[in-house]
Design goal:
CATH architecture of one domain: Sandwich
Helix content: 25-40%
Strand order of the largest sheet: 3-4-11-8-9
Distance between the termini: 136 Å
Structural class: alpha+beta
Number of strands: 11
CATH topology of one domain: Apoptosis, Tumor Necrosis Factor Receptor Associated Protein 2, Chain A
Radius of gyration: 33 Å
Order of helices and strands: HHHHHHHHHEEHHHHEEHEEEEEEHE
Largest sheet: 5 strands, antiparallel
CATH superfamily of one domain: Apoptosis, Tumor Necrosis Factor Receptor Associated Protein 2, Chain A
Shape: elongated
């Protein structure tokens, strides 16, 4: 009998235990991408990030209609008899679309809708802030071209979807000052690439002894970082608008300043009456700044003012803002009010210029040139230009701590051609009712009058 058992044991085939399948690789975490370090955000990393932009922040949104597939469970470990399996919270995080971020929701509420825990909100916000910061830092190719790649736009869209899923405001996040004490909108203005300058084709000879000026070329800004952030940041708060004005002042960027005037109603100082006169798709005041050479801070400002006479008669002031020589200026056509303590008598048509906060003080020696609508832009050779002198009697200062700004106020009556602007049908206002003037200035102590 023992011999039969031994023979049976010898004839039974032995089979080695099958190896356990390797566990499925978990999605990478945000920290493993090492995106928070700007030095690691090279061209290859940026492209890899863009390729996965569509699944960037695909977060679980709770139960869906229809049957739910069984969650994946890795086999239990066979090492020394220990059994390990995924917890219920981990398996729930794997349901639905695969995600880089396994944020967990708290238990369901009484209505059956899963509530989002404060920890999840904090994690989503931290991730969105990190991604937006990296967009602001940007790769070198983005900084040189000024436009965002499709991958970068996809990342921003994924952030918007994640915030919407968790009832968060991406607009509020973009206006928070979490990037070196400033908002992403501020840095998107400061870091805009310097645009090339081209020689101007028209210029006035021998005005303020100024050198030939240069004017920036116009480019398409619709796909840059500023435009992308603005599309998700509206409505803007008053503090954000003030910070964006400071960014334009820091870089002396009139092109962006004018662009924001057109894109953001709150950024503009156009009163309601003027908006009605100009219409819904109003042709706003067009202001361009030219920068001269030399050491005296020369610049020129070209201004085109639509519906000039109607706006003056109804609003009694047309205020224009522009950035030049790292200062924020306000130039106005105005009718002196009855309670004015400065300048010409009440009811006088005047021009004024002043600094806006927080511009540094300066002297100003300037003159206003009235363009001849028949001759077009510029002054024809051999013709004496129509000028109105604007010069500061003391150092100009911006308003601070309740102290009003130093203003230069000059009545139009000092030159008959300028005085004619107060009458309808003036020969200096063409049929389209758009007045064209040019301010030419130097930041110097005024010299003697020049004929």
């Amino acid at each position: 009998m023992a011999e039969e058992k031994e023979a049976l044991a010898d004839s039974t085939p032995t089979t080695a235990p099958a190896p356990a399948p390797a566990p499925q690789e978990a999605p990478p975490t945000y920290e493993s991408l090492n995106l928070t370090n700007p030095n690691n955000l090279g061209q290859d990393t940026w492209r890899r990030t863009g390729a996965l932009a569509q699944q960037l922040i695909s977060l679980p949104t709770g139960p869906t209609n229809g049957p739910t597939p069984s969650p994946f469970r890795p086999p239990a470990s066979t090492q020394r008899g220990h059994t390990r399996s995924l917890s219920s919270s981990s398996t729930n995080s794997l349901k639905g679309k695969k995600s880089w971020f396994n944020f967990k929701s708290s238990a369901s509420t009484q209505s059956g809708t899963p509530s989002v825990s404060s920890r999840t909100i904090s994690e989503v916000r931290s991730t969105v802030c990190g991604l937006v910061r990296n967009l602001v830092v940007g790769p070198q190719e983005q900084l040189s071209s000024g436009s965002l790649s499709p991958a970068a736009l996809g990342i921003l869209q994924s952030c918007a979807e994640a915030c919407a899923t968790h009832s968060m405001s991406l607009s509020a996040i973009l206006q928070e000052k979490f990037v070196e004490s400033h908002s992403p909108l501020y840095w998107s203005i400061v870091k805009r690439p310097v645009k090339p300058y081209a020689k101007t084709t028209t210029r006035t000879e021998n005005l303020l002894d100024r050198e030939e000026v240069e004017e920036p070329e116009e480019t398409d800004d619709s796909s840059d970082l500023l435009g992308a952030l603005l599309s998700h940041a509206k409505p803007l708060e008053a503090d954000t608008i003030a910070e964006m004005r400071l960014a334009c002042l820091a870089t002396s960027d009139q092109t962006t300043f004018q662009r924001l005037h057109l894109a953001i109603p709150e950024f503009s100082s156009i009163p309601g009456a003027d908006q009605i006169l100009l219409g819904a798709g109003h042709p706003a005041d067009n202001i361009t700044v030219e920068i001269g050479e030399g050491t005296e801070g020369a610049f020129a400002v070209n201004m085109q003012i639509p519906q000039f006479h109607k706006r003056m008669m109804i609003s009694r002031e047309i205020g224009l803002e522009f950035v030049a020589r790292n200062r924020l200026w306000r130039f106005s056509f105005l009718i002196t009010p009855d309670n004015a303590w400065y300048g010409p008598p009440p009811g006088s048509w005047c021009v004024s210029i002043s600094l806006q906060e927080p511009s540094p003080p300066t002297w100003l020696d300037a003159r206003l040139v009235l363009e001849d609508p028949v001759a077009g832009s510029g002054v024809p050779p051999g013709k004496v230009p129509t000028l109105l002198r604007l010069k500061s009697k003391q150092m100009m200062e911006a308003p601070r701590n309740g102290v009003p700004a130093t203003q230069i106020v000059v009545a139009l009556d000092e030159n008959p051609a300028f005085a004619s602007l107060q009458y309808s049908g003036s020969s200096y206002i063409p049929d389209d009712e758009k007045l064209t003037v040019k301010l030419e200035a130097k930041l110097r102590k005024p010299t003697q009058d020049i004929d």
